[in-house]
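Model it.
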Amino acid sequence: MTTAIENVKASHILVETEAKAAELKTAIEAGDTTFADAAKENSKCPSGANGGDLGFFGRGQMVKEFETVCFDDTVEVGAVSPPIQTQFGYHLIQITDRV
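Modeled.
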């Protein structure tokens, strides 16, 4: 029996284009930069100053496309999502904890 995820802690990087998000994902996965450094240098969200850290949040607090990734228990903690498009632009999401 699995327990429902109530809260997620995540970081994200918000950029204008899918190509930029894909480029950053490749750099992070290659070890050329860390997720936090990529967020500080590239994210257009104010959370970028904190390495993209959004802290903990529950269901209904983020836009649907973003929330779907965060509460999908098949997305591993620590993994970087593919580019996700929302009304704000393209996000890379890294789940850092689930409770």
